[in-house]
Amino acid sequence: MAQRDLFELRVVACRALILCSTLFGACAIPRVQEPLGGTEVPRLEADRVVLEDGAVLPLAQWLPARGRPLATIVALHGMNEYRAAFADAGEQLAANDYAVYAYDQRGFGATEQQGLWAGGNVLASDARQVAQLVRARHPGIPLYVLGESMGGTVLLHALTQEPRGWLDGAVLLAPAVWNRRDMPWYQRFGLDFLAHTFRGLKVSRPKSRTPSDNSETLRRLRDDPLVIKKMRVDALSGIADLMDDVTDTRRDVGVPLLILYGQNDEIIPARPFCRWVTSLDDGGPWRLAVYPNGWHLLLRGLDAATAMSDLTAWLKNPGAALPSECEAGKPLDEAACLALVASAALRQSPQCPRDPGLGGSAGAATAARATAG
């Protein structure tokens, strides 16, 4: 087929898709969960949390064997997962005298209306409500909220709505900060088109992308019946909306914030991650660590001990040095951040690089080399 014919065929196909989108777009809108409208007294129970609108969310707790915890942690799981995502981390943190509470976010795990998107505002409000309940149970003890992947996005949205006062610090594990503008055009168009037409269509994660290098972690994700294997496209669109919300505006960080990212992350690409990181306030109380041997599920990979060691050290003292020496400073710009991730990729060793991407002449020189290359 001639190049001109091929080009014309693509034009016709694109026009057909646009026409279909126009025709069907008004017929369907992405579906979200029905509001409950209850009036309950919010409370923590042994295996569930009840919120003020009547939502009942399954709850897991990992508590120190004895004594008063050093701090409490509310853990927010990622897309398609549920509270069991923190089973191993919860046990380890409890053994180090931290109290961990993880619940199934609406639409996931064993919640009602599983598979339906609840809305970013609802999920963020839930996180604040649960944090307030945990603080009430453990008065006078520092409270941290930890979000993994989509859970990190929910946490960021909650901080946007209420930057401080309800928590003492936050931890983001490979936060989902992939703005639509960073996606290929066909991915953006396809997602929006399907969410407004065949909104109930379910899709699975591409097999070419793996969240972990740990075969046991992958087996659990595959075999656990409460882990969603295929997700509705309108729910994916809802998550994309949430990622847009938390990345479109430069916002100050109101509390100490620890950001952890693995250079082997195949779920959240380095470019959108770096674009978001370098939009943060340079003077804010946030810290970044990048792990050469880390994957998306940092606390469940083969090198999980490295990130866990840094996490526990930071929880004890948010200003202390990280044991792994993987701290990356505050990259000057997107190019410096990408150079940092690339340098970690080349090293592939437990000892993390210190200079690429940092503020100052070393970071500037690295960025210049990355741009030139």
Task: Write a structural description.
With 373 residues, the chain is an alpha/beta fold. Residues 1-13 and 354-373 have low confidence and may be disordered. β1 (43-44) and β2 form a beta hairpin. α3 (120-137) crosses α4, α4 packs across α7 (233-247) and α5 packs across α7 (233-247). The chain has helices spanning 3-25, 87-95, 120-137, 150-161, 185-195, 215-223, 233-247, 270-277, 304-316, 334-347, 361-372, and strands spanning 43-44, 48-50, 56-62, 71-76, 98-103, 143-148, 169-173, 202-204, 230-232, 257-262, 286-291. Strands 1-2-3-5-4-6-7-10-11 form a 9-stranded mixed sheet, with helices on both faces. Strands 8-9 form a two-stranded antiparallel sheet. It is globular. 39% of the residues lie in helices and 14% in strands.
So what's the overall shape? Answer: globular
Across the major sheet, the strand order is 1-2-3-5-4-6-7-10-11
Number of strands: 11
The chain-level mean pLDDT equals: 85
Unreliable sequence segments: 1-13, 354-373
In DSSP terms, counting alpha (H) and pi (I) runs of 4 or more, how many helices? 11
Report strand %: 5-15%
Q: What is the CA-based Rg, rounded?
A: 21 Å
Kindly name the structural category. alpha/beta
Q: How is the main sheet built? A: 9 strands, mixed
Euclidean distance between termini CA atoms: 37 Å
| Topology order in helix (H) and strand (E) letters | HEEEEHEHEHEHEHEHEHEHHH
Helix content: 25-40%
